[in-house]
Specification:
The chain is an alpha+beta fold. It has 20 helices and 32 strands. It has a 6-stranded mixed β-sheet, with helices on both faces.
């Protein structure tokens, strides 16, 4: 990149190469109370970069600066500042900056005291869940000592009961012009940075974009705060919404080139694979395979005491991190949400936004523009077919549940379908490692059942499904396909539960027929024995299946008898005929092949690679690829196939 990223303060000493602790601090306060001057006095950086900002002398868009420091124990600290506009006309930009901060620097002029945007900015910080900060009384060099004493007392009275009061935030008189109070402020900033909590490492990487521009010779550059996870140079990412694949060509953290970044860092990323015109504030960079954007969310919202009642089907402005969208409100219970109350509601956004449970947001009324409330996302992927009353009950339980209980609730609401690890990652934004760690005690305790390496089923759902299976068995036997139809279980759950019940000797499997435990009706039927033997041979062979003639020879069956038995196996979909030749594959082997293809979605492969992946000769590879084409899992494109 180049010196055009001069908004970041460069440090070249080796002691600053790796920051072990960082904090994002946002300014807040009324217009012309000295926020930008204060940041400049602390860091030496003028965050007003736009010509209009220089000409008008006010902050219009977000500005960024940094301050490198050393903790009392000698460890390096990184303080990043997000300077936001104070004018009410630019509250949208203010919200884009406030959404990613850890603490607030509330700036109040000693000349004017608390003003309307002071109050609105503080309310926004509270709604966004910010709980730490410092109050700075600016322009103390232009007021008398008596006036300063009075204004500090007024400010402390105003802050009474707020999160700044509860966190014992200091009130520091400062002059950016003379330097008065700056040393005390720096000391308090270091203390604030030391108290900043370590970012949760259980969440997948996500960076909301707040700026996008072009640097000659490098191309597209985006900036933002890495909320969670890590990014590294060379990594492929997705830009959401849009599912646009990009690659990180280069990375800077406050002007320093880095190979890897950690959560809580302010980043500038040089991206390949995207034009700057394709990037807008509000999009997010995420790792491949992580949650995409959503347009429907269930939330818990608290309305401000001075707001108007919020009615069912109202339209509001929704703000989360750097994104904003018009949203339609669907209230659970329909009666209006009263000022000062908390309510569960569904928000239908006009455009998708990348969100996960726990994300904070702010709501503003459309006209006249004003902040009316905010809250947290409970479910970013609500089930569309879940009845409203049942969904309300589920949300009431979810909102106060521990993270482990939340995972259990998400799996349980899927019933006997269960939920895959990737599905849980998509719903929660948690890493695979975190999900395995959090669910393992639930599996050990029997509250969850792991039906495969990738799929979990609630213990209660599994018990109900088992009762359903056992209750339907008949002494004369029941076809596997018929039992599956009656129980409405998916393939994975059905196969797992059958094997579990057979292992516990609660039922008996004989080919395609299933009997209650202790039944002897299956012994006398030679067809069932032959069918089981044939199915077993094909299941063992996998994709390299023998011909019916070879199987008949092994089992000493006549050709006509073999044809009749193969017809029964095809009818019950135990075997599937592939192509026009005498190639039959067991449905279990085909299921594994389909799963393999789904994991390769988006890749291209030719016959040679397909043969290598599955250890096949051309005799099997060609008809199997044609089968995948028919199943619309692949699409032929010249000599290759695209995995869909």
């Amino acid at each position: 990149m180049s010196d055009e990223l001069a908004v970041y303060q460069r440090k070249t000493s080796p002691a600053w190469v790796k920051m072990i602790k960082s904090i994002i601090i946002g300014t807040a306060g009324h217009i012309d109370h000295g926020k930008t001057a204060l940041v400049r006095a602390l860091t030496g950086i003028d965050t007003d970069r736009l010509p209009d900002e220089k000409r008008r002398g006010i902050t219009i868009d977000l500005g960024f600066a940094s301050l490198d420091a050393v903790a009392p124990d000698g460890s390096p600290l990184q303080l990043s500042f997000v300077d936001v506009p104070g004018h009410k006309l630019f509250i949208r930009n203010m919200l884009a900056g406030a959404g990613c901060i850890d603490a607030v620097l509330l700036v109040i002029s000693a000349e004017e005291g608390v003003k309307p945007q002071t109050e609105e900015h503080l309310a926004i910080c509270n709604l966004l869940g910010i709980r730490q900060g410092i109050v700075v009384v600016t322009k103390v060099d232009v007021v008398s000592r008596a006036r300063l004493t009075d204004i500090c007392a007024e400010i402390r009275a105003y802050l009474s009961g707020t999160f700044l009061d509860r966190s014992h935030a200091p009130v520091i008189p400062v002059s950016a012009h003379t330097g008065q109070g700056l040393d005390e402020l720096r000391s308090e900033l270091l203390s604030l940075a030391m108290k900043a909590p370590i970012r949760n490492r259980d969440h997948l990487p996500r960076l909301p974009v707040d700026r996008a521009f072009v640097i000659k010779g490098f191309g597209t550059v985006v900036t933002g705060t890495l909320l969670s996870g890590e990014f590294h140079v060379g990594e492929s990412l997705l830009l959401e919404p849009g599912k646009l694949s990009v690659r990180v060509r280069g990375m800077q953290i406050h002007g320093r080139r880095e190979e890897r970044s950690q959560a809580g860092s302010r980043l500038a990323l040089n991206l390949a694979g995207v034009e700057v015109s394709e990037v807008t504030r509000g999009q997010a960079l995420v790792a491949s395979g992580t949650p995409g954007a959503t347009a429907t969310i269930d939330v818990e919202t608290t309305l401000l005491p001075y707001s108007k009642a919020l009615k069912h089907r109202s339209r509001v402005h929704f703000h989360a991190f750097t994104s904003d969208a018009i949203a339609s409100v669907s209230l659970y219970g329909y009666h209006a949400a009263e000022p000062g109350s908390s309510r569960l509601m569904r928000l239908n956004l006009q455009k998708p936004v990348v969100l996960v449970p726990g994300d904070r947001f702010v709501l503003r009324q459309c006209s006249p523009a004003a902040t009316i409330g905010g809250g947290r996302v409970l479910d970013a992927q609500p089930l569309v077919d879940l009845r409203k009353a049942k969904c309300l009950t589920w949300l009431e339980t979810l909102k106060d549940a521990s993270i482990e209980e939340q995972l259990l609730l998400r799996i349980a609401r899927r019933g006997t379908s269960g939920l895959t690890t990737s599905g849980l990652m998509s719903e929660t934004g948690l890493t695979q490692e975190a999900i395995v760690r959090l669910t393992e005690p639930l599996v050990s305790g029997g509250r969850l059942v792991r039906i495969s390496d990738n799929t979990l089923l609630a213990g209660e759902a599994a018990a109900n499904a088992i009762d359903n299976i056992v209750s339907r068995l008949k002494p004369a036997g029941l076809k596997r396909s018929e039992l599956k139809r009656q129980t409405a279980l998916n393939d994975e759950a059905f196969d797992f539960l059958l094997e579990k019940l057979a292992g516990e000797q609660r039922l008996q499997l004989q080919g395609e027929l299933i009997y209650p435990s202790g039944s002897s009706a299956h012994v006398a039927d030679p067809d069932r024995i032959a069918l089981s033997a044939i199915a077993s041979i094909y299941e063992t062979a996998g994709l390299t299946a023998p011909s019916p003639t070879e199987v008949a020879s092994r089992l000493s069956l006549k050709e006509s008898e073999m044809r009749r038995l193969m017809t029964l196996l095809l009818r019950d979909k135990i075997l599937v005929k592939i192509g026009t030749e005498t190639l039959y594959i067991h449905q279990g082997a085909l299921k594994k092949l389909r799963n393999q293809m789904r994991e390769m979605r988006g890749e291209a492969l030719d016959i040679a690679r397909f043969k290598q992946l599955n250890g096949l000769s051309r005799k099997y590879a060609v008809p199997l690829l044609e089968y995948l084409d028919r199943e619309r899992l692949t699409r032929k494109d010249g000599d290759k196939r695209l995995v869909l």
